Amino acid sequence: MAAVTYRQALHDTLRAEMLRDENILLIGEEIGVFEGSYKITAGLLDEFGPRRVRDTPICEEGFVGAAVGAAMLGLRPVVEIMTINFSLLAIDQIVNHAAKMHAMFGGQVSVPMVIRTPGGGGQQLAATHSQNLEVFYAHVPGLKVVAPASPADAKGLLTAAIRDDDPVLVLENLALYNTKGEVPDGEHTLPIGTAVVAATGSDVTVVAYSRGTVVALEVARRLEADGVSVEVVDLRSLRPLDRQTVCASVRKTTRAVVLEDDWLSYGIGAEIAATIAEGAFDRLDAPVRRVAAAEVPLPYAKQLETAALPDAAALTRVIYETLDSTGFTARPTTPAGG
Amino acid sequence: MDPTQDRTEPYPQASPASEDPAALRGYYRQMALIRHFELRAAEMYTRAKIGGYCHLNLGEEATVVGLMAALRPTDYLFTTYRDHGYALARGADPGQVMAELFGRATGLSGGRGGSMHLFDAGLRMLGGYGIVGGQMPPATGAALAIAHRGEPGPDSEAVMCLLGDGTTNIGAFHESLNLAAVWHLPIVYVIVNNHLGMGTPVEAASGEPALYRRGCAYRIPGARVDGNDVIAVRDAAQTALEQARTEHRPRLLEAVSHRLRGHSVVDPARYRSAEETERLREQDPLPAFRARLIEDRILDQEAADRIDEECEQAVTAAVDFADASPPPATETLFDHVYATEVANTHFGLPGDSPTGPGLFADRPGKE
Questions:
Q1: pLDDT at B79 over 60
Q2: Residue A188 designated active-site
Q3: Which of A62, A102, A104 sits opposite B179 (nearest CB)?
Q4: ipTM
Q5: Angle between helices A268-279 and A243-253 (to 10 degrees)
Q6: N or C: which end of chain B has fewer CB within 10 A?
Q7: Is residue A208 in some structural domain?
Q8: Residue A88, domain CATH
Q9: Which candidate from B148, B171, B342 shows the least CB-CB separation from A51?
Q10: Whole-model pTM?
Q11: Could you tell me if A53 and A166 lie in one domain?
């Protein structure tokens, strides 16, 4: 175990997998000579050469589609799309092609490719560069979408994605790249399609993913001191969605709040709320609440940007509103040392 | 070849006299098979045996057969949605092709793709593609895989990527050509120019209507060939493929022909005048090639009739096979959604709860 950044965990995983399997190649804009916009691929061009670390012209549809074709012939391309905003240029290749081929061609071909791309706002990049569009891809059967929240999960889920024979979108997050955490040494893979209870609690379940999980864990720690026990379910995987773990948690705590970075309407939280309505309705003590981004093209000005994005304060407020609506009283906190 | 040289007329004429007669008879047989197959497909569509969209290669048989004759079995093929003829000429079983059109379990893709998405892994026919231009980036990526694994040379594999005239205006065309140029990929892009993107003439759609010149921006040499001349098409494709193999550089080829009917089976092609339709019928490559072979004594009337008859029988057998084949079982609905099994996929039909009635009810409740 060593404490490394999320960025370093991604880098080390790419390197380890490339050493393991000659068929893996990296494709993306500025990943080689420039070492990646966010430096995930730093040093890999020097180590593996231009055949396996392939800089591309600016053409998301072209190079994502080229990765699809290379994967059809048995290579295992790992594509970097600089941010998820630019994935829209490639959405035809992702949704109409990568996601369809295995099924549409009757299982005769598979598309073992990975798309790594960061989402996230809060960097004053304004409306076109701050979006959280993961739900676009999580909506589509044939794709798998994972969203690691910690450096350890970044390693485990990226490794699983690379070894998977289907197209997997690995959602990274700009705000997480510098976060640190313990990462297991050696082999570490996590099962795609499986959520995890990241913090156990008994009063309310917070369902989150990616950056949201980090915020939720921080809030859970703070509220513990106030005598509120928060359970955090980290989805880890947006497609397939581990409904069972979500519902089991809510059936236990009887209250649920979803924290999501995307927009409220039709978002990940809507799917979670519907899942809870179907799988835990008889246990619910309060309506499921969602803490999501304000429905606005994200402004540049820092004050407006901050106001629009979900944060720990908003989550805390909604947790308390949910608890209050059910007449919950916090347990007295244990005195320090007691 | 100088890509800036506009060589529209006359086309270089290929001479059957120097050709292997058996090969020529084989081309005629393939062209006749496609003709019969497509006519029956149209009929089966009107009889509601075939659903969805159905685009026919009628009038393009010389282009189809010439291109397929140039490919090696080890080469890879990506096509548009007008793909029946390519599958047949590549060697797919007509029964399996018809069964795919019928949506039957015995179809090339088990009935999951239909007319626009014919795929045969064994024949390295890596798909018909329904989205205009959608095949181009993956075809380019297939060529990337070839270049990634091997060196240029006469034994290198290559990719042939077909596209229609309308596709030259979409972004994927330009991004693919550019990638193939900067990455030095062994791929031949073939524009099958039938003069119309649905109902829009090439001149109305393309700033440069001499489509073979549209690779100029990427320094990709282009050539234009008479798509009604099966031998000329084969030779031009062979030349382009050989260059792609030995240099690992892309080539662009334009084959000009006409589709004899509408865009798809349901299009009556009212945008064409009666005179135009009549003129196209006179240019029909199938009777023209037949007459040429008879004139050159490669076929006699009787042998040609026999080939036609055998093709008709083969298509009848294909229809009978498709018709007798079962549809895919509903229980197989979720087969092939994923290649690697994954936890928590929802295998529910419409109306089924993803959490299942009572599925989680026996989980431990709140204390």
A1: yes
A2: no
A3: A62
A4: 0.95
A5: 60
A6: C
A7: yes
A8: 3.40.50.970
A9: B148
A10: 0.95
A11: yes
